[in-house]
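#struct-help
A.M.: can someone run this one for me? Single chain, 158 residues.
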Amino acid sequence: MALPQAVAEDYRTTSLSLKAHPLRFFRPMLDRLNVTTAERLKGVRDGRRVSVGGLVLIRQRPGTAKGVVFLTLEDETGVANAVVWKDCFDAHRRTVMSASFLIVHGKVQAADGVIHVVAEGFTDLSAELARMKEDPEAPAPTVRMRTSGRLQRSRDFH
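D.P.: on it. Structure tokens below:
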């Protein structure tokens, strides 16, 4: 079994892999799209526009948050948090609630060591994950959408 397939199968069955992180195979594409890693996000100035992407680990929509959704994304370097205000969520509800591999475009909000990306838009790359299961070689990712695939389910609280 090729490494991308092995990682996809690990994630499908256990939601993790000791072999590699799925985004490792997509990093060249993400770099071309100027998607910052979770690790590099720590060095981005407050208020700067950025794109950050990863597997959606958690979606939270607390009843006390007045419609705000909090997302936790994971890439091969760590986790990044995004805040989706109600208006943005309403405009992108389907993408926010269904994507498993997501790029969040927005502004960095950094205060007291806590970093969030305040979402302004999204790119759903979930269909790319299916290619890891199908393709015996490392994926040659594109932004074009294909059949849907899910390596893991997010933990959603709403």
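A.M.: thanks! The longest strand covers residues 49-60.
D.P.: also worth noting: Residues 3-141 form a domain with the OB fold (Dihydrolipoamide Acetyltransferase, E2P) fold (CATH 2.40.50.140).
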